[in-house]
Amino acid sequence: MSRKLLLEHINVPGINTLEVYRQKGGYRAVEKALKTLTPEEIVEEVKKSGLRGRGGAGFPTGMKWSFLAKPEGVARYLVCNADESEPGTFKDRYLMTYIPHALIEGMIVASFALGAKVSYIYVRGEMMPQIRILEKAIAEAKAAGWLGKNILGTGYDLELYVQPGGGAYICGEETALLESLEGKRGNPRIKPPFPAIAGLYGCPTVVNNVESIAAVVPIINDGGEEYAKIGIGRSTGTKLISASGNLVKPGVYEIELGLPVEEFIYSDEYCGGIANGKRLKATVAGGSSVPILPANLTLKYANGEPRLMSYESLSEGGFATGTMMGSGGFIAFDEDQCIVRNTWNFARFYHHESCGQCSPCREGTGWMEKVLHKIEHGHGTISDVDLLWDIQRKIEGNTICPLGDAAAWPVASAIRHFRDEFEWHIKEPIKSQTQNYGIANYAVPIEKAPVTEEK
Amino acid sequence: MLKVEEQTPVVFSSELLAKFDDVITRYPADKSKSALLPLLHLVQAEFLWVSTSAMDKVAEYLKIQPIEVYEVATFYSMYFLKPQGKYAMEVCRTGPCCLVGAEKILDHLESKLGVKEGEITADGLFSFRGVECLAACGFGPVLQISPEYTFYENLTTESVDKLIEDLKNK
User: Fold this and answer.
1) CA atoms within 13 Å, Cβ hemisphere of A97
2) Looking at the complex, does the CB of residue A165 fall below 8 Å from at least one CB of chain B?
3) What is the pTM of this model?
């Protein structure tokens, strides 16, 4: 069994209550941080831990904290991003449902480190049950003196509030989230200024993902250096992976970064292989935005070496033969799934969720959805594949926020790796309505290209 | 489109207004507009949808222009801008759930309830629609029922039938 830092006590009955959470060592990090460490020392520990943002971008959390501006007499804010909406990702919901105090404990430590007196947890509106769980847990913590005025007699005051969103994927982007928290449409802001300088209400603000904040607790308890010993290279610590799709055991797993992808998919400790005895066709390794990979490239690099679950290893080979860690939303497709249909589905998602601020994204996502709908339903022409390629190229990099890229990458990678399936849909318009293309040649690992010696 | 003339004025109960008063204490005094999204949720929980008249009252309460409420209510997908069934079912229709049969659940709801997506059953009890990812991909297909947002996982056509029967008999 690998080491668990966040989900160690997930199966303990009553771990969602303050009492049981305390019995299992909860709130030790708050005691240690508030009584024995200075805010600067906490930031230093987080830097040493090498923790990278768990929301998707993977930016080092300690460095993000150190950018926070600290002008005299201006409030500073910590906002937790619990707007988990990336298709394939459901780890934060799991954490908040079962161990809400892990997030609250992390919030207290992080707020202290950043000098925030009021902090918000922005939870996506659909998670009303989780909002109720968090509000109950906050009330419990407050009654026990972990929140409110003069926490543990240290003179530090903190109020923590839960803010519901309204159902918008874009509010997972940090500046859109701040706009939404200010009671406006979720339109991402132009950066700079970054939130660390001008965030919520124009004040210096740090926005962190739920899992990143929860990870601060073991970092403070054990020290940043201990945390950095787990994992591989610059991918330190453990990561929650949300596994979904055609797997024997979908669910949330805590892995040590560096676990071979093959072991994650096929071992009984994790997903237990592909459901119904079928073969793996493709995976999306980090949430719907990251490039889809065929089975062979999921398990191994183009040169045949095994691929690992880490930031670096998943992106090995660039977009040509690699993908990204993203938010850790691992979606597996079995041999009977249709890549064209899934690409259309994702394109519809991005079209629906585009905020409409930038033309390339607003128009491009809708256009891609229409073209993919046409191909999927047997009305495509061969030039449509090139058209799709052209549209996605014109979205990528041309928008204020990364939603444009997120919409473009799934389309680009599906064409890159599964072009023949698109072409089959177009050449066999009637057959494609009743059957799928199947696994084709993707399960066969790519052989190393033979090198012809020069004579 | 918002059609103002078709709507009857709403009255906010003192209980609802007390909840409003509680919400705005969470923000700095001059930033009460931050309460807009939570207030619209409270309104929807009370009336099962958000009418223009209700939005105007929210604007009045927060001392902002009605347009500031309209633009928010129309931007976010959770706010119902027209009446729904008593149990408004929302089924996730995004990729991972479709891999495990979400489309079948949507088709089944349509035939079982005898209404199309967005319509209300004759008895006023049910309406349904497909929505984008609900962040429960590993437990799909999933649906949620507003206004409580109770959540149902690993759906089959049989479990949906049972759910509908249970709600009818409630």
Assistant:
1) 13
2) yes
3) 0.93
